[in-house]
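Look over this record as teaching material.
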Amino acid sequence: MIRSAAILMLATAFGGSAAAQQPAEDGWRLAWADEFDGAAIDLSKWDFDVDCWGGGNNERQCYTDKRSNAAVADGKLVITARKEQATGPAFPLSQRGDPAKAKAEASRNFTSARLVTRGKAAWTYGKIEVRAKLPQGQGTWPAIWMLPETSHYGTWAASGEIDILEAVNLGVRCEACAGGIENRILGTLHFGGQWPANKHKGDETALPAPLDGFHIFGIVWEKGKIVWTVDGKPYATRVASEWSSSGSSDPAAPFDRPFHLILNLAVGGGLAEDRGLKGVDESGYPKKMEIDWVRVWQCDGEAVSGCRNTGDQTK
């Protein structure tokens, strides 16, 4: 059976809840979840990244921990990007140990939120699914993704990055898209050496209709293999022969270590502004990303490959 410090962390964090002890279905056991049924964001599960760094992509937002940018409402987590000026740390927390960067500030013309499970829950292998409704418009960039809990193989991207879901400019005119509007979602891995020797590999697929509805975005992650799903149907697969880490000779590295989850809504940045109509359409704000639930399963079989690898767990 799969065992790691991350799973032990989960057992402690989840306690003896009914969800953690529910009978396994097709070999999967619900190990961690947030249904957003409370009155506020559960800070035992989530933390906030607070900065105006721009994500390394020249994004246009400051991330805050304000209720105006992230709150629970009607059983959903709502991340809201607003057109408003803000000032905050110019560098992410990971770089603010450098005295030259610790007090530096930057100003941006948008605010939003980025929630992380870093330091609270992380997983090695399993099934991760998020039911979410994505915003539309030129320059919108919602993401559901994962970063390593530690830089075991080196700084980004030698220790890896798993992008479960990215979407940019949904609903915008797109000559190359079916129906003439942007409807593509992306699933990507980042790996290789430390920047700028990093590499990436990914796939995209059309988001099933309705574009403005809720969909389930997920991965099934086993040693040496990751499958991306939307609404329970697989659309991309990566295997260990397609990735690498300069920090290890193990073919499964860097995707053999604990990763934590990130939910965020960016405004602008390289990927969004280089595609579609280019740049950022500043009309129509605020923009919202709604998350109905987040669920993480672990496999009770001898390996993840012993559990059902496709389909969602909405029953």
In short: The chain has one domain: 5-306. The longest strand covers residues 287-299. The chain is about 5% helix and 40% strand.
